[in-house]
Predict the 3D structure of the following.
Amino acid sequence: METPDRACGGAIPPVSRTDAPAEGHVRIDDALSIPLAEISVRASRSSGPGGQHANVTASRVEASFDVLASAALNEAQRERLLARAGPRVVAIAQDERSQARNRELAVARLRERLARALEPVKPRRATRPTAASRERRLEAKRRASERKRERHPPDRP
């Protein structure tokens, strides 16, 4: 029995050889590879211009990944994805006329989103303002004060 997500064409082809370390997986980074079974794909009619062809073909593809249901993620990866991307990561492609090409594009975009969300945040190093930047700030404050002072009428003797 086919699931509704797979009714549009079965398994997702790998985007390229570098993205698929083993058949049926999408390589996210060096430490993570997600099975294609965890990525659901739906096809629908594309919006926008296209004439008769767009009215009869389901070439728009939506690839989604359920973060909470994934067995490929460890707890640290799951927490980072939930914090940065939410419980469901979605990528849509409707650039091409071909559903197969849009499927490849959607999976590639999903892979990029997941990789970007899994990148560790570089901690900020606290720095102090330089002497020149402090002087510029004070000079700007003096100019603003002078400009406002000039708006007042002069004092009468």
